[in-house]
Design a protein that fits this description.
- The chain is mainly α.
- The protein is 69% helix and 0% strand.
- The chain contains 3 helices and no strands.
- Helix 1 (21-33) packs antiparallel against helix 2, helix 1 (21-33) packs parallel to helix 3 (63-103) and helix 2 (39-56) runs antiparallel to helix 3 (63-103).
- The protein starts with 20 loop residues before the first helix and ends with a helix.
- The chain crosses the membrane at residues 20-43, 78-100.
- It comes from Nonomuraea solani.
- This is DUF4190 domain-containing protein.
Length: 104
């Protein structure tokens, strides 16, 4: 006994792509390679996109791109904060050294 062909089965809703997924990934990678000032933008856009993806309830095929761009943005932002910290310490030492050398 053979069963009739009913066509393709139902596999659920089609996966969607978040419109900013590629942008977030590119910003995250560029923030690590070219300019660390882009990192906070990738981080905040990634957080917003992940909230939108989680709130929608649908399957997004580029969620990994959003997460990767967000993580690159976090790493770049931390490196940016460390750099500003070292610059602030260096500036403080320069000011203190300059003040001490003029008093002597």
């Amino acid at each position: 006994m053979s069963y009739p062909e009913y066509g393709p089965g139902y596999y659920g809703p089609q996966p969607q792509t978040h419109p900013n997924g590629t942008t977030i990934l590119v910003l995250g990678i560029l923030s690590l390679v070219v300019c660390t000032f882009i990192g906070p933008f990738a981080w905040s856009m990634g957080n917003r996109a992940l909230r939108e993806i989680d709130a929608s309830g649908y399957f997004y095929e580029n969620r990994g791109h959003v997460q990767a761009g967000r993580i690159c943005g976090i790493v770049s932002s931390v490196l940016l904060m460390i750099t500003f910290g070292f610059l602030a310490i260096g500036l403080a030492f320069a000011v203190i050294g300059g003040a001490l050398s003029t008093n002597s």
